Amino acid sequence: MTTHDDPTWHPETLAVRAGYDPASAGNSAKPPITMTSTFAYASARQAKDIHEAYFHGTGPEVGKALHIYARLGHPNLDMVETRLAALDGAEAAAVFNSGMATHSAIVLAHLRPGDSVVFSRPIYGGTNFLLTNFMPGFGIHHAAFANGCDRTCIETAVEQALAQGPLKLIVIETPANPTGAMVDIALVVAIADEIGTRTGTRPLVVVDNTLLGPLMQRPIALGADLCMTSLTKYCGGHSDLLAGGVSGRADLIHALRLLRTTLGSHLDPYTSWLLLRSMETVHLRMERASDNARRVAETLRDHPKVAGIIYLGFLEEGSPERAVYDRQCSSAGSTFSFALHGGEAEAFRFLDALRLLSFAVSLGGSETLITHPATTTHYALSPDERAAGGITDATLRLSVGIEHGDDLIADIKRALETV
Ligand SMILES: *Cc1c(COP(=O)(O)O)cnc(C)c1O
C-alpha cells in the first residue's frame, strides 16, 4: 500500500509525492490536467453542502476537495498548494498567477485605510511600487529599514509607522536582490510580538523567500506568519511560467483564497500542472546551481578585471550579517552581483561578448542569466537611489543555472578578456 503524503518525510521526498494521490485519478502515476471552468454537482443537496464547506468550513463536504468553479479552486491548484505547504512546512498554501498577484493579495487582505506597513530595503521593484506608490492611494502609510540585522534600525522604522497608524504588516525580503542584504527573520518576529504586547495589535510578518526558496531557507520554522515565494523563479525553474505562492496558518490562507476568488488571480490548471512537475526537481536544480554559483563567484573574485563581488558565501566571518546567514540560510543560492572596473562601457562590452550566458531579467531558471541593473531592472531609479542599493554603472547581476560549470566559467573568462 503506497501513500502520497507522510509528514515525517524530508522536503526532497515531499517535493516528489505531496499533493497527488494516484488513487484519485484511476491510478495514473502522474496527475491529469483537469481542464474545466465549472464542476457538475451530484445533487441539489450536495451543491448546498459544497458551498457551505467552501464559505464557512462546516458541514458534510468539508475536507472532500470538491469544486464549484475554477476561479475558486480546481484539482491541479489543490495539488500544487498542498505540495508548496509541505515544502514550506506550513499548514496551508495559496497559489496565484504571479508573485506580484500574491504580494497584492496579502496587502489587500490585511491593510485598511489609516493602517501602516513596514518593509525592508532594498525590496523587489514591484513590491516597492505596491507599498510606496499604489497603497498610499488607499490611505496606507509606510516606513522602511535598511539594516535588517540591527534591532535599533528596525525599531526606528516601526516607531515611524506606528506614529502614522496601526502597524498591520512587516514585509521583509531576505536575502535581498541584488545586494544580498540579510534580514534577521527571528528578530523581526520578536519585534512583532513586542508590538503586539504593547499595542494589542500584533503585525503579521511576511517573508519574501524567493531568492533562496523552500529548500534553503525556512521562514515558517523561524516564526514568520506568511512565507511568500515567486514560483516563477527557482520553483518553476525553467523560465517558462509565472506563478506565486504564500504559505502559513490555515485561517490566514483561507482568507487569502477567498480574496483571490474576488481578484480572479488563481493559477490555471495547465500552469499548476507544470509547476507541480517542476517542484519535484527544485532541490536538485538549486543544489547544482548553487555549486556552479560558488565556482563562478570564486573565479570572479580572483579576476583582475573585477572590482568587487557581493556573494553570500563570502560574507565576512564575525559580521552580524554572517551570523544571521549562518542561522537562517542553508546555502548561498545562485543569484548574486559583481562589478567590473570601469562603468557602463566596460559592462556593455562584457555583456555583448558573452556567448553562453543570456542577457535577460528574471532569475532561477535552468539557464544562466545576466542583467545590467542600472539600465534594465533599476533603470527608473536615480543614480543616488541606485548607489544606495549598491548598484553602479558597472554592476552586473548573475542568476547561475545548471549548465556545466566549466562552460560557464570559460564563457565568462573569455568575455572578460574583451573588456
Ligand atoms: C520576481 C520576484 C517577485 C515577483 O514575482 P513575479 O512572479 O514576477 O510576479 C517578487 N519578489 C522577488 C524577490 C522576485 O524576485
Describe this protein's structure.
The chain has 419 residues and is α/β, with parallel strands linked by helices. The chain folds into two domains: 205 residues, Aspartate Aminotransferase, domain 2, CATH 3.40.640.10; 135 residues, Aspartate Aminotransferase, domain 1, CATH 3.90.1150.10. It has 14 helices and twelve strands. The structure holds pyridoxal-5'-phosphate (PLP). The site of pyridoxal-5'-phosphate has 16 residues, from helix 4 and helix 5.
Secondary-structure topology with pairs:
Blueprint: H1 11-17, H2 44-56, H3 75-88, E1 92-96, H4 99-110, E2 116-120, H5 125-134, E3 141-145, H6 151-164, E4 167-173, H7 185-199, E5 204-208, E6 226-230, E7 244-248, H8 250-263, H9 269-279, H10 282-301, E8 306-310, H11 320-328, E9 335-340, H12 344-353, E10 358-359, E11 369-371, H13 383-388, E12 395-399, H14 405-417
Parallel strand pairs: 2-3, 2-4, 4-5, 5-6, 10-11
Antiparallel strand pairs: 1-7, 6-7, 8-9, 9-12, 11-12
Helix pairs in contact: 1-3, 3-9, 4-5, 4-8, 10-14, 12-14
